[in-house]
Design brief:
The chain is an alpha+beta fold. It has helices at residues 6-14, 39-48, 78-81, 93-104, 141-151, 182-190, 193-196, 200-216, 248-258, 262-280, 322-341, 345-365, 437-453, and strands at 2-3, 22-30, 59-64, 67-72, 82-86, 115-123, 127-135, 239-247, 290-296, 308-314, 376-381, 389-390, 393-401, 410-417, 420-428. The protein has 2 domains: 2-166, Chloramphenicol Acetyltransferase, CATH 3.30.559; 182-453, Chloramphenicol Acetyltransferase. A 6-stranded mixed beta sheet has the order 5-6-7-2-13-12, with helices on both faces. A 6-stranded mixed beta sheet has the order 8-15-14-11-9-10, sandwiched between helices. Strand 14 (410-417) and strand 15 form a beta hairpin.
Length: 455
Amino acid sequence: MKPLSPTDQLFLWLEKRQQPMHVGGLQLFSFPEGAPDDYVAQLAEQLRRHTQVTTPFDRRLDTRLAQPVWVHDEHLDLEHHFRFEALPTPGRIRELLTFVSAEHSHLMDRERPLWEFHLIEGLGERQFAVYIKVHHALVDGISAMRMIQQMLTTNPAERDMPPIWDLPVRAGRDDGDDGPSLWRSVGHLLGESGKQLGTVPTVARELLRTINDARKDPAYDSIFHAPRSILNQKITGSRRFAAQSYSLDRIKAVCHAFHTTVNDVVTAMCATALRTYLMNQDALPAKPLIAMVPVSLRKDDSSEGNQVGVILANLHTDEPDAAVRLTRIHQGIQTAKDRYATMSSEEIINYTALTLAPAAFHLLTGMAPKWQTYNVVISNVPGPKETCYWNGARLEGMYPVSIAMDRLALNMTLTSYNGQVEFGLVGCRRTLPSLQRMLDYLEDGLAELERAAGL
């Protein structure tokens, strides 16, 4: 038995029909060299033999003294969690994304462990896919990425590899979240109160500085200036998932030309895509959109401590020039990084929690529309740098599938893999029609920057 932390409980409280609180991932594989046509069916039979389910995938929800806890599920039905499915003809990427969109819209059964593993055949060009979804109360996106990487190998000859639910439990493996999250930041502030007292002077000073900067400069990335937008309406339970890969070399060439970071460039690509999409909907706010952008603050190769900060980045969507927009985004993010450079990890977490508290209150209640702290999430989860395989099948792409919420109808999450940047966009199908066009607008954003750089 393991009690849920207050933050993990929050993911359960937030969940409702129009707001499923699970995260997911889509992996696209190519058949091994010389594999038979029924390779995926054979793989399904192999996976069914993995009847042992390791932590955390063996846990289901229960209550003790009116408090939610995780308990071992003595009657786990693997057939419910592992599903072997085929796409309808003609089996294009379009059909795959439609399948994931529909599955990501469905709530999971809280009487069972909160995860599903879909093995999907029927794709053309001797390819297949895996779609995994897990409730955010069970694991977070970063923990899920680690588990997926543990499931993979860089050796194309390796076979009989276990699925994610039967991975060996590594010593010291922590299924909790140490990544950036609005809810975890707020939950961290509310907990361990005695430990937080020492951070008060620095946090108060920086918060006051932020407020003063906002008063002097209306365009400052502050907690007060996110405009009202169609991105911040109430949503339905229907989802649209769109995904695309972009060359990391192209993005790095733009970085070198403008002396920015990869994170700056992908943020600028998102800004251009949002600007074009909202203009085409005749819904671009006069004021610039604000994004919540988690950024790494690590200065060394250590693995200790929380060295991730959440930045409220002005996307400058009111600026028509792509190069100027990138420069201003870079300057804003760098200013926030410089602020964090003078603060400890605890101070960064608490500063983040305080600046995002208005957003948490508004997202939970909808009662403070003037406290629209940000309009969209743009999150980057690092992935494998080398070519990976699973039971001889080459991993061609891996795309994050995240969470849309009331008053936060779009989530733009990306990951890096083997020289590619993989975008996964999740939005409310009704609130944001034709979301898939944003993939073209991301490409337009990168092409604009290449032209501006003379590439």
